[in-house]
Structures are given as structure tokens and as C-alpha cells.
């Protein structure tokens, strides 16, 4: 089933994923590798698309990203 999202942006967390990733001095590949260790497979290209908001994020990915970046899920959302 196709995902239908109104508007240009496909997620709300991309900017903060980039911000926290860079704060922790992780490359996109390093973040991808750490997610894989958690059993969540998000390739480096998908990390890039998440950060530029052209890819949706599943709840499982959201949980793992927050865990790897050592932040609360709410921290990933713009306030």
C-alpha cells in the first residue's frame, strides 16, 4: 500500500537527526552501522534521505535512532 503524505516533507525529525548525529561526531555511515547493530537496517543513503526529509521513518527506526543518538524520542521533534 502506498504511503500518502501531504506536503513536501516526509518526516518531522530529519533536521534533529542531523544535528544530534553531528554533535556525536558520527558520519551517516557510522549511524547506519550502529543502527544495524541494534537490528535496524537503514543504509547510509536512507540516513541522508531521512535528514533531508525525503524519506519516511517507521516507529521502529525512530526508537532505534533515538537510542543510538542517546536522546529521548521527543528530542528528535522540533518544538
Description:
- With 79 residues, the chain is mainly α.
- It has one domain: 434 Repressor (Amino-terminal Domain), CATH 1.10.260.
- The chain has 4 helices and no strands.
Low-confidence stretches: none
* Fraction of residues in H or I helices: 40-55%
Domains, number: 1
Rounded mean pLDDT is 93
Which structural traits does this protein have?
79 residues, mainly alpha, 434 Repressor (Amino-terminal Domain), 4 helices, globular
Chain-wise SSE layout:
Blueprint lengths: L13 H10 L4 H10 L6 H8 L7 H11 L10
How do you describe this structure in short?
This protein is an all-alpha fold. It contains four helices and no strands.
